[in-house]
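Retry 2 of 3 after timeout on previous attempt. Resubmitting structure tokens to design endpoint.
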């Protein structure tokens, strides 16, 4: 092969290498730290860039995306001297590539270690029960502690999340017993409240039933009273009408004789009924003197009638007040 051809090939290779070394394409959400002869020169953002070959070089390259770092589980002691194993997750983001490159050797490791230290400090201030209840407060305190120290590292701590808090087995057993007792307590309270409400409902129902019964009884008694009053009024009206009719009849011609005959008939019928119902009779001394009984009854009528009007003439000897002789 001719020396000239070899020289051309070498020059072409050198040019290709120079071109490759002088061109740098930085992806989106990425920054590159360029050093010239070992000294910081510039920070390259996303895009196409030219470098001086063999003089400039990309020393560091950082992703500006949010990163999630898993911290190792660690043992923490609470304020009531209970050991718990806490596992967490930290989210960070590079905001200053130059500070991240020259401010600390490994910002990921440093942030993880600082998160563990801050976590132990926060948990040590709380009792075991509060540790489970105040996860958000612990997370905020860890973020605040890391963020204050990482300001010179060029990174931003976005958040910290506790993944798991594992107490000892003995504490687990005690917590489970407490949980069962608490649930039983709530169940007993709920049951007692239900029984209380049921008792109240039954009492109110019984009260309403008694009220309705008393109102119904009152209505029934009022209806009966109204019925009896109407019956008494009807009977009284009928009796009054009958008495008026009898009175009008007695004032007519022959009325007194008809009344005497009717009284005698009723007198005989009364003794006939007594004889039919019993074999033993107690009779008045004048039981056989029907005329005397009729005269007595008619004399009562005559007295009542005499109160209304005076007699027009005196009665004859041996005659009653109604103009006939009772024999």
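Retry 2 succeeded. Sequence:
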């Amino acid at each position: 092969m001719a020396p000239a051809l070899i020289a051309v090939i070498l020059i072409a290779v050198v040019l290709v290498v120079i071109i490759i070394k002088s061109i740098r394409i930085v992806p989106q959400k990425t920054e590159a730290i360029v050093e010239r002869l070992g000294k910081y020169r510039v920070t390259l953002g996303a895009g196409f860039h030219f470098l001086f070959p063999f003089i400039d070089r990309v020393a560091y390259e950082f992703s500006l995306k949010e990163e999630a770092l898993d911290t190792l589980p660690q043992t923490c002691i609470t304020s009531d001297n209970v050991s718990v194993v806490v596992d967490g997750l930290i989210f960070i983001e590079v905001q200053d590539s130059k500070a991240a490159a020259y401010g600390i050797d490994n910002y990921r490791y440093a942030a993880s270690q600082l998160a563990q230290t801050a976590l132990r400090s926060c948990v040590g201030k709380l009792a075991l029960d509060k540790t489970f209840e105040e996860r958000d407060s612990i997370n905020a305190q860890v973020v605040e502690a890391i963020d204050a120290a990482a300001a010179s590292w060029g990174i931003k701590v976005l958040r910290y999340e506790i993944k798991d808090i594992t107490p000892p087995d003995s504490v687990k057993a005690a917590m489970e017993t407490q949980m069962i007792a608490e649930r039983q307590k709530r169940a007993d309270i709920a049951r007692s409240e239900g029984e209380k409400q049921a008792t109240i409902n039954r009492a109110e129902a019984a009260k309403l039933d008694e009220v309705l019964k008393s109102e119904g009884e009152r209505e029934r008694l009022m209806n009966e009273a109204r019925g009896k009053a109407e019956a008494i009024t009807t009977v009284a009206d009928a009796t009054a009408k009958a008495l008026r009719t009898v009175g009008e009849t007695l004032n007519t011609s022959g009325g007194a004789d008809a009344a005497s005959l009717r009284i005698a008939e009723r007198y005989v019928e009364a003794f006939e009924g007594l004889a039919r119902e019993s074999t033993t009779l107690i009779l008045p001394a004048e039981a056989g003197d029907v005329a005397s009984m009729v005269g007595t009854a008619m004399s009562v009528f005559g007295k009542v009638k005499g109160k209304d009007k005076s007699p027009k003439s005196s009665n004859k000897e041996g005659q009653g007040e109604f103009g006939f002789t009772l024999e």
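Attempt log closed. Residues 169-250 form the longest helix (82 residues).
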